[in-house]
Amino acid sequence: GVIERWELQKAQTSGQSIEQDLEQWQKLNSDLCDVTSWLGRVLPELGRLQRIAPSTSIRDIEISIRKLKEMQRTFDSFKCLMISVNLSARHFLQGDSVELQELQEALSSANHSWSQACCGLESWESGLHSALLQCQDFHEALHLLLLWLSQAEDKLCAVNTDPSASQSALLQHQATLVDLQEELRGRVRQVSSLQEINSQLLLSAAGEESVEAKEKVHIISTKLDLLLQQVAAALLSLQGKVVSQETCSTGSELLGAGPETLGSPLLPHKDAETQRATVRQPANTRSLEEAPPHRPLLYRLFRAAFPLQLLFLLLLVLICLAPLSDGDHSCTLSNNFARSFYPMLSYTNGPPPT
């Protein structure tokens, strides 16, 4: 029982290994076929590109550089595939079968073609590098850019940003800076193209002429970026000074103006409407406006009844002053009335003792 189970497990493991080997074999043949097919197309193309005479135009060199970059990316992708094919083939190279011999021959041919393709790519890149150094347009472009950037730097230094300058002078300097900024931005694309050429053909070059051209491209790109920053900062500062001068001049005009001048422009529309409304008013409306204002109703009633109230008050005073009668008991009544205001004691058991 134990031996049978061991044999069964060994058979299953062997079957799985054979299945994995079969899948790996099929993948190896497929990848090798793809690499061989691509190498069969790229080798004639590289030979044709190497036979083309180097151009003296910087535009043609830029086009060739783009093709070179695209082909280098393709080489990088197939390089990974070539490494994978060589690593996978080591597992199947132990044997004498016909299929293994064919695999060895195909792999050897693919490696040889790959070496030829890499040499052709390097040769094409070297030819482009030589053509670039012999291109007069390239050297003239570098020289003209350096000269133009020097002139642009002189223009920037000539701009007067003194706040005590007149407003017209500041506006003129502002227009000069705006034009200079547009010119600098127009050179960005040309400098970017030179940087691309430098990174592709001059970055790893070791010749004296190559190093000199590489340094010029670096100086041009650095100076262009620096000038763009300086012009933007100077333009921002100058705009602030122009606005400050306009504010100061406006405040001086307002302080020097009279009250009529200050008040008249504030409400021109309303004053005009008021004048037109006054002209259109009829005569009777003006007379009503000139009449005294109406008094309140309570005030008018009190004013009309005041004589009657004064008369009633006088009669009341006379009645109070007149005696009630001429008899003797008038004094008794008066005394009783006076005594009523004093406190009195009441005794329940008769009069108090004397």
TrEMBL record:
Keyword line: Membrane, Nucleus, Phosphoprotein, Repeat, Transmembrane, Transmembrane helix
PROSITE patterns: KASH (PS51049)
InterPro entries assigned to the protein according to its UniProt record, in alphabetical order: KASH, Spectrin/alpha-actinin
Record's keyword annotation contains Kinase: no
Domain of life: Eukaryota
Membrane topology: Single-pass type IV membrane protein
Cytoplasmic face of the membrane: 1-303
Boundaries of every KASH domain copy: 295-354
Perinuclear space topological segments: 325-354
GO cellular component, one term: nuclear outer membrane
Pfam (any one): KASH
Annotated signal peptide: none
Database matches in SUPFAM superfamilies: Spectrin repeat
Protein location: Nucleus outer membrane
Name this protein carries in UniProt: Spectrin repeat containing, nuclear envelope 2b
